[in-house]
Fold this sequence. Notes:
With 268 residues, the chain is α/β, with parallel strands linked by helices. The protein has eleven helices and six strands. A six-stranded parallel β-sheet has the order 3-2-1-4-5-6, with helices on both faces.
Amino acid sequence: MDLGRMNTTAGALPRILRGMAGVILDTDGVIIDSARVHAAAWQEAFDTCLRAHPPPDPAQRRPFDVREDYRRYVDGKSRLDGAADFLASRGLDLPPGDPADGPGTDTVRAVAALKERLFTDRLRAHGVDAYPGTVRLLTVLHSAGIPLAAASASRHARELLERAAVLALVDVLVDGVEAARLHLPGKPDPALFLEAARRLGVLPAAAALIEDALAGVEAGRRGGFGLVVGVDRARTPHTRAELLKQGADLVVHDLGELLTEDSPENRR
């Protein structure tokens, strides 16, 4: 770390992050505006599955909700965990399937593969952008020499960060490819974030974790991170309250708020 550079920019650091030895950020919904693309792909995959395999209870045949169902069952999780959790919530007991299963609706792996294909098609057709407030925060932290890591259960994280031109702002990336290689359990287990902290060379208790997913916030609290910041893109009292209940120390709507003097400390 360049201590001279840090000293010249320390005054610009958000008060809430001063004293943190490192900062770890989730990717989808925190750095990259890709959650909506994931949600749309899940919606099409799950609704196709629900039509092919109608749950016995008519009340459970309702379409996938891109806000509530996405946040509760799939946000922040691996594709397989997300697919299994949502299908179970609708009373569907599909077989797990095999790794070679192609896109379809007859197994959990097939539904996950269908979502993957739909997401990839949307990504290649439309791309995604980084949140401007996050870019401003990353730029300040990077200029100050604060070690930064991006973490994601998605295998697309590196491509997303590269396409949004923000990969160079982080020192470490632990994505879904690495998580699979290391056999890291998914959120709310903190393993993904603990690996990111290890690669940064910082103790979790001395690091800040920034997450928008309920499972990710819970993982941060379980991992013993010194500060857990929740990002509430939905901007509702309900979603803010849920993030706080899962263990967020504070909740902001956009990370650019951390660069202002009045926002973070009073949001608990």
